[in-house]
Specification:
The chain is an alpha+beta fold and 348 residues long. 17% of the residues lie in helices and 34% in strands. Strands 4-5-6-3-17-20-19-18 form an eight-stranded mixed beta sheet. An eight-stranded mixed beta sheet has the order 8-9-10-7-11-14-13-12, covered by helices on one side. A two-stranded antiparallel sheet has the order 1-2. A hairpin with an 8-residue loop joins strand 15 and strand 16.
Length: 348
């Protein structure tokens, strides 16, 4: 027997989350977590404002231009990628910029240079939401549209397993990504979802006072934090419908922010997500990655509904899209986009 839980299928129809206890199966081995890295955050920038993207993400923060999107800078249009060590922020075009309901923590060997640049910020940022403040040796910086970044000094934060292509960035890592959730949200259930589907481990000492902290790789965390403003409505998704065109099928799409993670065993993660009924096809993107054979061939799949595996009938705790990627191809070779030098470096 099933009950409706308020989620949509890729075609836009209602789906059911399965009402039975789901075993913990998303662990690659008895000693290794399945997750390897949270590699990027994707948020939309305002279409036609590459000047603001360059001024803030590259010139001010010191992010490196990813050569795979460098031609878009010259063209003045389309997506840009800003690299921060082994991690990235993907900045897609949107009619309006997205404001992350959370906080991105960037680590630097020293804040001296970025502090100096903040004191003489590019004039194009005047009149935008850009701003900054310093407290206890850390810098809280707001991008031109309102997304917030915490800049900290942390020695040795650069991931030793590899880096993104191109020039070395001044920030060494995205050390934490904090996502706000409604007050009273089922944080324990969120933790169970990440442990079972993605293979994250909860960090008990840090997970208290309305916070859930999950390890996503060496020196990197994903944090869920009850919103500091209880009156705000928290919604990380922007649901719509993609009309069929150019041979691509139509269907449900999410234009909201999404996270990308790499795992050791994609098949295991897919099986767990499928068992819970949370596989999501975002028709915004060409790769639909469903069914399983297609997901394995494309080295990825997506989920949107974050549910409690112990209470799937309760529906989504939050809706936050994840692109779950495989670090290896079906033939066992390292996937071309994985930010690791080789299989040995990634301990795969």
């Amino acid at each position: 027997a099933f009950q409706l839980a308020g989620a949509f299928t890729p075609s836009g129809r209602m789906t059911h989350h399965r009402l039975r206890e789901c075993p913990v199966i998303a662990r690659a081995t008895a000693t290794k977590s399945n997750i390897l890295i949270l590699d990027h955050l994707n948020i939309n920038h305002e279409k036609g404002r590459h000047d603001l993207v360059k001024a803030f993400y590259y010139d001010l923060l010191g992010g490196a231009v990813d050569p795979r999107k460098e031609e878009n800078i010259a063209a003045g249009r389309k997506t840009l990628w800003a690299n921060f060590g082994a991690h990235q922020i993907h900045l897609s075009e949107g009619a309006e910029a997205q404001v992350l309901d959370g906080l991105v923590t960037l680590s630097y060997e020293s804040l001296d240079k970025v502090r100096s640049r903040l004191g003489d910020a590019p004039s194009v940022l005047t009149g935008t939401a850009f701003g900054w403040a310093e407290e206890h040796g850390k810098l809280l910086v707001t991008d031109p549209w309102g997304s917030k970044f915490l800049l900290q000094e942390q020695k040795g934060a650069r991931d030793p397993r590899g880096t993104q292509p191109g020039l070395e960035s001044e920030p060494t890592a995205i050390s934490d990504l904090t996502i706000n959730v409604p007050n009273g949200a089922n944080l324990e259930g969120i933790g169970r979802f990440y442990e079972q589907v993605i293979g994250c481990q909860k960090m008990p000492e840090e997970s208290k006072d309305g916070r859930l902290v999950l390890s996503t790789g060496p020196g990197q965390t994903l944090t869920f934090q009850e919103s500091p403003d209880a009156s705000l409505v928290i919604a990380h998704e922007e649901m719509g419908f993609f009309a069929a065109k150019d041979g691509r099928p139509g269907g449900a799409c999410n234009n909201g922010a999404h996270l990308s993670v790499y795992v050791r065993d994609l098949a295991l993660a897919f099986d767990t997500a499928e068992l819970l009924g949370v596989i999501f096809v975002n028709h915004r993107f060409k790769r639909l990655a469903n069914p399983k054979e297609e997901a394995l061939d494309q080295c990825m799949f997506r989920v949107l509904d974050i549910i409690d595996p112990e209470a799937p009938g309760a529906g989504p705790i939050i809706r936050l899209e994840h692109e779950i990627r495989s670090a290896t191809k079906v033939d066992g070779r390292l996937y071309k986009s994985a930010p690791f030098r080789d299989l040995e470096s990634a301990d795969i």
